[in-house]
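Table S4 entry, GNAT family N-acetyltransferase.
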Amino acid sequence: MQLLLCHSLVRSNQYAPKQKFIKVIRKGTLSDFDFFYGLYMHPQVNPYLLYEMMDEPTFRPIFEALTQQGVLYVFEVDGKPVGMSKLVPMQHRNSHIVYLGGVAIDPAAGGKGYGAIMLQKVIDYAVTMGFLRIELSVAISNKRAISLYQKLGFVQEGLFKKFSYLKSENIYLDEIFMAWIKDEN
């Protein structure tokens, strides 16, 4: 198992819980399929992510492609996966930018500050990899996520009208475009 960021104590972060647990972020592997599938298809999480609800055989090639690209990350607390994200590097003149997507904490682990801890670890990791800018889009209706992103230094840069289509509800969602920039945080 390759550990990307490991801190045995909670980082001094005003949003972090005060308990001492080992928290790491690592690259997702094929053995993480059940965790990713369960979180992507969780009814409380799925409406905010890219993929519609689907069965395991349909999701597996998507997961395998993302794993092969090396863009999936797992956030673990004491060896147990509780969160996920994707970091998709841009190329050429935009190679200083990484797109952050697929951000979710297992609802069973919610309310413990893990979202803030995971995102700070993702930011720290992106910076160590040489990225100067982290971009994301978030549904305008996802007020909790927007608030968390703002607390961690993300700034709204635009609005995408009818950006995502939620087939299960037959509606288009507007999304806010946000960015975190190294020299501004």
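The chain is about 25% helix and 35% strand.
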